[in-house]
Amino acid sequence: LTSSFMLLNHSEVFKIIKSVMVQFVLLGFSELPDLQGFLPGVFSIIYVAILIGNSLIVIITRLDPALHKPMYFFLAHFSTLEICYVSVTLPRILVSLWTKDRSISLLSCATQLCFFLVLGTAESFLLAVMSYDRYLAICNPLHYPLIMNPKKCHLLAAGSWLGGMPVQIGQTCQIFSLHFCHTNQINHFFCDIPPILKLLACGDTFVHEVSVYIVAMLFVVVPFMLILASYSKIGLTILRLPTAQGRTKAFSTCSSHLLVVVLFFGTASITYFRPKSNHSAGTDKLLSLFYTIVTPMFNPVIYTLRNQDVIAALKRLFLKT
Predict the structure, then answer these.
(1) If you write DSSP's letter for every residue of 55-81 in order, what string do you get?
(2) What are phi and psi of 202, to 5 degrees?
(3) Which stretches of 200-280 are DSSP H helices?
(4) Which of 278, 306, 314, 318 is paired with 25 by a 20 to 30 Å CA distance?
(5) Sign of the dihedral through C-alpha 136, 141, 142, 145
(6) Is 24 helix (H, G, I), strand (E, B) or coil?
């Protein structure tokens, strides 16, 4: 963190500190007045389900010896990341819905955006690492235990968590160093880049939009291309397997991860790579709901219902209990 802030010049830091008391208003779902009494209960249930489902995966991968494998090591990190990722946005949404107070300070908004970007980047990297793990397990099974040793697994996990941190901290500070020219109302349910850029647009924001696209290309498109390359190799290897049973078993180990990749990268790509003219508040909110709330909610279901090892581990855990 220190090294990232050292990259900023003093004027940018001063602008941020000077604007700490600026208040934004997160409009959230104010355009749906009939659902204001319904939404808090729904989001509370979703949040509890996300916490319980992902925590269960973390617990069983730690306690069950049968799951002490690289695949489940990364799955435990992914579930932990999902808990952190959704906790950046959903508790703030619940507070806003319960208290009817939609205000958020500039510092809180910047902090939320920074954590959201850092954790989103970590998820993108971790999904790429998980696809690399499946590639080695299926395409290079004899050398798999040697390549994916514990030290390598820990390094890949640490790189996923920390890899995008300096750039995303710098990008957040760059965005919030701009002047505020328009309304302080953010037509979204959390502080995200597209709606914030609309507020900070004093004149031409082309340079800032280009920087956002470059960072998105680096942290979304590159990992996605690596995932595609891995699954292309995996697909060719599976097709060459001699038996249908072998092909089915090999594909089943990848199908859950592939489904999560499509859900996460699909909605995130549409959000950040759509032309500016096609952006609308309603569409942005709907897409954001998918990759910030819906996907983390379904991930535990996807990984348990489609994975016999996880189901067996859950049965052993509940039988012991």
Answers:
(1) HHHHHHHHH-GGG-SHHHHHHHHHHHH
(2) -105, 95
(3) 206-216, 222-239, 244-273
(4) 278
(5) positive
(6) strand
CA dist., res. 240 & res. 238, Å (int): 5
Q: Give the whole-angstrom CA distance, residue 115 versus residue 120.
A: 8
Single out the residue of 140, 77, 125 nearest to residue 261, CA to CA.
125
Q: Which two tokens stand for residue 276?
A: 């500016």
Rounded to 5 degrees, what are φ and ψ at 29? -110, 35
Predicted model pTM? 0.86
Digit-coded pLDDT (tens) for 50-69: 999 999 999 999 988 888 99
d(CA 225, CA 232): 10
DSSP 141-172: TTTHHHHT-HHHHHHHHHHHHHTTHHHHHHHH
What would the pLDDT profile of 198-222 be if each residue is shown by its tens digit? 776 555 667 777 888 888 888 988 9
> What letter represents residue 315's amino acid?
K
**Whether the Cβ atoms of residue 47 and residue 86 lie closer than 8 Å to each other:** yes
Q: Say what the pLDDT of residue 132 is.
A: 95
**C-alpha distances in angstroms, 56 versus 61, 130, 175, 291?**
9, 19, 37, 21
Query: Whole-angstrom Cα distance, residue 117 to residue 167?
Result: 10
The pair of structure tokens assigned to 218 is 């680096």
185, 275 Cβ separation under 8 angstroms: no
How far apart, in whole angstroms, are the C-alpha atoms of residue 117 and residue 154? 22
For residue 277, the 8-state DSSP code is G
107 within 8 A of 20, measured Cβ to Cβ: yes
